[in-house]
User: What shape does this take?
Amino acid sequence: MAYWLFKTEPETFSIDDLKSASQQRTFWEGIRNYQARNFLRDRVQIGDQVFIYHSSCKIPAIVGIAVVVKAAETDPHQFDMNSDYYDAKATHEAPRWVGVTIQYQQHLTPITLAEIKANNAITELALKKANRLSIMPVTDSEWQLLIASR
Assistant: This one.
């Protein structure tokens, strides 16, 4: 099992939206960064644990946990001309983008970006390095450290 952090803007899709979704599951679509796509396609597996991180909001923070319940599949939104995630270069024969299905596990007392940056024991998490990736790995030790802080 691996650990991940998935960023989302809470005005678009929040931890509360995930909790209230059908079967508390959602297909994590709209990833349009190649490094994040490669993580989803090549490394994220069923059973992996995911921190849900609210970004682009008043207080950016880890707000909950989800689990991956379905491995990478083609993101159908890349073919929908009416979607914000449409990609004119993607074809059904050669899709460019994937997503995974995650299921809600629990809310957390928010772990703010300020707290994460102030914690000297957290050295590997790309979030701490002002990384703009929407999907990033979390080491086992840093996952445990962050969970223990709550």
